[in-house]
Design brief:
By secondary structure, this protein is of the alpha/beta class. Helices cover 30% and strands 23% of the residues. The protein contains 13 helices and 17 strands. Strands 3, 4, 5, 6, 11, 12, 13, 14 and 15 form a nine-stranded mixed beta sheet that branches. A hairpin with a 2-residue loop joins strand 8 and strand 9. The protein starts with a helix and ends in a 5-residue tail after the last helix.
């Protein structure tokens, strides 16, 4: 996978995708697989923001049963299966336990009916899946089995639990990268650290986009017959630069902060859902009734999710500090046996998620439930589409819809989408031990477009796993990356300092 902005600027592409998070990566992969000439640019590194900081659970949509929203539940089941099929080395089954008996939690009979209906609605969930990646049927479990799976559950209120299976992304940042690498293998031209600065509009259409190479400072004009902006919380700002006239209700915030905490030990053998007892009108997630989840990783546990409001023009640090305190307190109230203290937290993951903001029914300050696909109307250039996803799980399906629309807009016949069946490059099941770290660092530079030390540490290797890299490991990686990219000592030192900064992820 080569990074060459001169090459991107040298031809007109069928589709220019701006934004290399999971949504932009899925669009580039789908379009390239359907034979379109694709360019993908990302301001920072691929998947460096919200896409890398999810709770890592691929939900099958059991929560939609309470609303009888069977269409969304089937979509979630289908997309969970697709990820297990195309990326079995990065997505695996995950048990999910909800203890029953506590106030506000459905009882065993209700959960038993829900699990039976879930099973009936998902007859094809294991189609073409490796045996190790198949999703087992859910079941009701006894109190002793609950305690075996989740030893911290020591309250007298619970009487057993419901256990079902979803999936877990082992490394969301590498899964996003696998979509990008796959797009490049299918002919897409991709570049990270390449920022869309300005748009040339002629005759009501985007003719080219000025791209700043943030590593060299050079600027390039990149052309695309269709332009898709999939830049997460920056989508609205970029579409405004492209001439899109905002047609949104004014005054309301557009995004919420979302925070997960990393605990420095493995608390349970399965993910656990605990009912939140806190209530706050300021919580976009609807606290006081929603479920909190703890999700086991290899040696740590993720706790999530706290949601809060914050002005995007201000430092989110103080809000995240408050959120961390609130989230720990909520988990301790829901399960006193956890006994969590601030010293148990070894890392944070956070991002920004879209709010309804008057675009969906319900309170404008609650989390959006539907992806936003806009464009092709009088408020924006004719060949511009904007996309903002709400769930990592369904990004592939949203991309399919977007590429269908791109083909129609270009007057091309529809071509079959194959992204639900085609294995991703670099996401295969591993047959043995990983190569030595030094070898993987060099591979990240030579084959995976790692251009900074942070790219290698936080999104290509496990060096950046909480609590973060040691200075010795960082120094060795800086030496290897610097030798490969021709850095002088000043640049090596600057890269190390940048990678050690809080929030460097």
């Amino acid at each position: 996978m080569r990074r060459d902005l001169n090459e991107l600027a040298g031809v007109e592409h069928d589709v220019l995708v701006i934004g290399g998070g999971i949504q932009g990566a899925c669009i580039a992969w789908d379009a390239a697989l359907r034979g379109l000439k694709v360019a993908l640019v990302e301001r920072d590194d691929f998947g460096a923001a919200t896409s890398a900081n999810s709770l890592r659970i691929v939900h099958g949509g059991i929560r939609y049963l309470a609303r009888a929203d069977f269409a969304r539940m089937r979509e979630s089941i289908r997309e969970r299966s697709a990820l297990l099929r195309v990326a079995p080395g990065l997505v695996e089954p995950l048990g999910v336990l909800v203890p029953t008996g506590a106030p506000g939690v459905p009882g065993k009979a209700a959960f038993g009916a829900a699990l039976a209906l879930t099973h009936a609605l998902s007859p094809a969930r294991n189609r073409h899946l490796d045996p190790s990646r198949r999703i087992a049927a859910g079941r009701i479990v006894s109190r002793p089995e609950c305690q075996r799976l989740f030893p911290a559950l020591n309250t007298a209120t619970f009487n057993g639990g419901a256990l079902w299976y979803d999936a877990r992304m082992t490394r969301p940042e590498r899964l996003t990268l696998a979509f990008v690498v796959s797009a490049a293998s299918a002919g897409a031209r991709v570049a990270n650290h390449a920022e869309a600065e300005d748009f040339e509009i002629r005759h009501g259409a985007v003719r080219s986009v000025r791209i700043l190479d943030r590593l060299s400072g050079a600027r390039h004009e990149v052309r695309g017959r269709q332009v898709v902006i999939a830049a997460g919380p920056w989508t609205e700002e970029l579409s405004g630069r492209a001439g899109r006239r905002a047609n949104l209700p004014g005054g309301d915030p557009r995004h919420a902060l979302a925070l997960n905490l990393v605990i420095g030990r493995r608390i349970s053998e399965v993910a656990v859902g605990l009912r939140s007892s806190a209530a706050s009108e300021a919580d976009p997630g609807g606290s006081g009734g929603r479920f909190l989840f703890l999700s086991p990783q290899e040696h740590t546990t993720l706790l999530g999710t706290w949601y809060g409001m914050a002005d995007p023009s201000t430092d989110p640090g103080p809000a995240l500090d408050r959120g961390a305190e609130v989230l720990l307190a909520e988990f301790n109230r829901a399960c006193p046996g956890l006994g969590l203290a601030p010293g148990d937290v070894i890392g944070r993951q956070w991002g920004r998620l879209p709010l309804k903001a008057g675009l969906e029914s319900g309170p404008s300050t609650s989390l959006a439930e539907r992806p936003r696909v806009g464009g092709r109307n009088g408020s924006c250039p004719a060949n511009l589409l904007t996309v903002e996803a709400v769930k990592y799980t369904t990004a592939r399906a949203v991309a399919q819809e977007v590429v269908d629309g791109v083909l129609a807009s270009m007057g091309l016949r529809q071509r079959e989408c194959r992204t639900a069946e085609t294995a991703l490059v670099g996401a295969e099941l591993s047959g043995g031990d990983l190569p030595p770290l030094a070898q993987r660092v060099l591979y990240a530079v030579r084959e995976e477009m790692a251009m900074t030390l942070g790219d290698v540490v936080y999104r290509r290797t496990e060096l950046g796993d909480p609590p973060g890299p040691s200075r010795e490991a960082l120094g060795l990686a800086a030496q290897l990356v610097g030798d490969a990219l021709g850095w002088d000592e000043k640049r090596r030192a600057a890269e190390q300092a940048s990678a050690l900064r809080p929030g460097a992820v």
